[in-house]
Amino acid sequence: IVVGSVIGLLFGLLKRINFIPIKYITIFVIDILRTLPALVLLMWFYFCIPIFFGIQIDAYTTTIIVLSMNLAAFIAEIVDAGIESVPNIHIDYGKLLGFSDKQNLRFIILPIALRNMTPPIVGQYINSIKLSVLDRKSTRLNSSHTDISRMPSSA
Questions:
Q1: Interhelix angle 59-84/20-35, nearest 10 degrees
Q2: pTM of this structure
Q3: What is the distance between the alpha carbons of residues 120 and 41, in angstroms, rounded to a whole number?
Q4: What is the pLDDT along the chain (155 residues), one digit of tens a residue?
Q5: 55: part of which helix (H) or strand (E)?
């Protein structure tokens, strides 16, 4: 939950950046991770990463990576919506007080947005805890997974 929250916060802030390539790459990654079910991502990571990159990852690590990425995508959307929900008048008041953009974000926008983001974030944490049952299912993959390179040849 901690890793997914930190990555989600970073993705949510990167989505608000004005540099177009980073913004659209972040939006693309978030949309892909949000639309694919966690079980599909779990199977894809567990079976395809060893084939494409030659890295063998155990089932427990794969589950943590996938659930963190899934949570990060949803947290990024919640952070983006929370920042978007802050009325423009509050942002203008911060500029009127002479705050820089970083100070405005830290002292005015994020405290108001955090109040708006708390209920959906708690809901996503509960959903992530419910998805953690996939860990028990994925550990069974270790016993049924066979390494293709060790299979005897038919010749």
A1: 120
A2: 0.82
A3: 23
A4: 899 999 999 999 999 888 999 999 999 999 999 999 988 998 888 888 888 888 888 888 888 999 999 999 999 999 999 999 999 999 999 999 999 989 998 999 999 999 999 999 999 999 999 888 876 666 565 555 555 555 455 54
A5: none
Helices (H), 85-132: 88-96, 101-104, 110-131
Q: φ, ψ for residue 97 (rounded to 5)?
A: -75, -5
CA-derived radius of gyration, the chain? 20
Distance of CA 25 to the CA centre of its chain: 14
Fill in the DSSP letter of residue 98: T
Structure tokens at 6: 């930190």
Alpha-carbon torsion, ordered 26, 29, 31, 32, to 10 deg:
170
